[in-house]
């Protein structure tokens, strides 16, 4: 499998749209290609970050503000023809505006603690610290935003911490899945932009 095909498969796999046979080919490729493995891990962290973000409805006047920010043209017909001749550049420009708007909106949100997962019955909260107590088992993935995590018991899934930290594991702790930390939203933003343009380049 070529790397450009692997990149397309990565996005489909993270979206849950990749066929089983293609999934096996992708996994085999990642075992032998460190560059693609690094790219996949970055995409996986980005995907976890995006899924943990609260969904925000776009302002009603967003389309108007975008159109108003575009430079006026004395020859609308020429500008329209340029857009038709360069659809990829036009799409990239719109993507940048929308991503920047989402990024600003994210930073304007309150930095409240957010915890998500299928099994939170035995999870304990102490201030901004999320604790899996000793002797307790939490099933499924656990995602914590704007807080610290301390695992004293069992976590049967992945642990993702965004803008927080994972305290040293106790001797009684056990995490069955992977532990991921995403600390810098700016890195996420620029990686999201670069991965988007990389996909465009491979697709062209």
UniProtKB/TrEMBL annotation:
Q: Which Pfam families match?
A: zf-HC2
Transmembrane spans:
none
Signal peptide per UniProt: none
The lineage's top-level taxon is Bacteria
| UniProt cross-references to InterPro entries, sorted A to Z | Anti_sigma_zinc_sf (IPR041916), Znf_put (IPR027383)
Q: Where is the Putative zinc-finger domain?
A: 3-36
Which portions of this protein are annotated as coiled-coil regions?
Answer: none
Its family?
Belongs to the zinc-associated anti-sigma factor (ZAS) superfamily. Anti-sigma-W factor family.
Q: Can you say what this protein is called?
A: Anti-sigma-W factor RsiW
Q: What is the protein's species of origin?
A: Cohnella endophytica
Q: Which lineage ranks, top first, belong to the organism behind this chain? A: Bacteria, Bacillati, Bacillota, Bacilli, Bacillales
């Amino acid at each position: 499998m070529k790397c450009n095909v692997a990149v397309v498969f990565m996005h489909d796999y993270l979206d849950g749209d990749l066929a089983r046979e293609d999934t096996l080919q992708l996994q085999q490729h990642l075992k032998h290609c460190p560059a693609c493995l690094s790219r996949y891990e970055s995409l996986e962290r980005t995907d976890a970050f995006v899924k943990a973000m609260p969904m925000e409805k776009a302002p009603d006047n967003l389309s108007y503000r975008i159109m108003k920010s575009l430079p006026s043209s004395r020859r609308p017909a020429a500008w329209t023809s340029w857009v038709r001749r360069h659809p990829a550049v036009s799409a990239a420009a719109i993507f940048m505006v929308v991503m920047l708007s989402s990024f600003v909106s994210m930073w304007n949100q309150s930095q409240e603690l957010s915890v998500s997962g299928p099994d939170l019955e035995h999870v304990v909260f102490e201030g901004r610290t999320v604790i899996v107590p000793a002797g307790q088992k939490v099933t499924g993935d656990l995602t914590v935003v704007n807080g610290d995590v301390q695992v004293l018991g069992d976590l049967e899934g992945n642990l993702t911490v965004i803008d927080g930290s994972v305290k040293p594991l106790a001797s009684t702790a056990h995490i069955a899945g992977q532990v991921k930390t995403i600390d810098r939203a700016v890195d996420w933003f620029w990686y999201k932009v670069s991965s988007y343009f990389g996909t465009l380049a491979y697709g062209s």
